[in-house]
Every structure is written in structure tokens, then in C-alpha cells.
Amino acid sequence: KTTQEPTMEEILASIRRIISEAGPAAAPAPATGNGHKNGNGNGNAARPAPPPAPEPAAAEDDDDDLVLTDVPDPVAGAGEAVVRVAAVGLNFYDTLMIAGRYQKKPPFPFSPCGEFTGTIESVGAGVNDFAAGDRVLGYCTFGAARERLAVGADKLAKLDADLDLERAAGLAITYGTAWHGLNDRGRLAAGETLAV
Length: 196
Fold this sequence. Notes:
The protein is of the alpha+beta class. The protein has helices at 8-22, 92-98, 165-168, 171-185, and strands at residues 80-89, 115-123, 135-139, 148-152, 156-158. Mean pLDDT is 76; it is low at 24-61.
């Protein structure tokens, strides 16, 4: 079975669909109590509702501002590699960033998506661990939804030949976030049970 790589237009359509399905930021529900006993024994003590979330500016919330643009091919600087992108991971934080709701706000215009796979086309001075033709997984916070990308070699990892590029594109952030949550934050230990 052969599969055709998605076009940038298809990737853009997917991003628009995900943003539109997310809808506007949900307002917090009114408080009805915390379920714990307060000092007088009442288990439904009311507490003040948090203030509503601010509405995003219309321009930040308009996914119709997403456009495809031709940009010059990147050139690898010192310590960088140019990667021909094969696949990108689209994560929840990408949709927040596009809408201007994420804590990191790159200046507009920018290219979304922070995790990617591809093949190295060229390397800059000082890059000795990678060469043209190497299959890689990479992370760049944002900027990967493009055909070619210049990125620091320290943000890349070589991939085995039998690892599918499309599946591997979700490893940097998705896997890394899960690992961090279980190990660093949850401190999961041998003998404990994890419900997924």
C-alpha cells in the first residue's frame, strides 16, 4: 500500500478544523461549594466564582488568518542543520499558540508546530553528528509546519531506518510530556498502578 504525503493545504485545513472544534475559551462554571466541611459543618459552603477568562482579541481568534506563503529556503548557520520536513505533530498547545492564547507568543506571522521528522539536506559549520540524508526527529517550539527548516543540531535525534516518519513526528512533545508527567511530576514508582 502506498500513501501520499499530505500537502501543506491539507495540513492547514486540519489546523483550521481543530481550532474551530475547540471553540472559544470556556467560561468557568459558577461555584456551588467545595464538597468539604467548613468550620460550621456545612459540606456545601459556597465560595466565590473565579473571574471569567478574558475574551481573546478578534484578530487573535480568527483562524482564517492562516495562510500558505512561499518563503526563501533556509540556510544552515553554525551549529544548525536544514531538514526537509516529512511530518509534523500538531498538539493542543499549537492551536493555543495560533489563537494567541499560549504563554509563548511568537510574533505574527509565524509557522506553527514544534515537533517534526524529516531528512537532513545540509549542515552548518561545527555540526559533526549529522550529515545529509540522515533521518531525524526534531523539536523547535514553533516553525515546523513548512517544507524546510533550519534548526539547531542540538534539537535533533537520529531515527532508525525502520521507524515510520509520520509516527515518529509525535514523539518529541507528546512522548516527552507523558514521560515528564509520569516521572518528574507524578513520581511513578515500581509497584504502583497507573490508570490510562
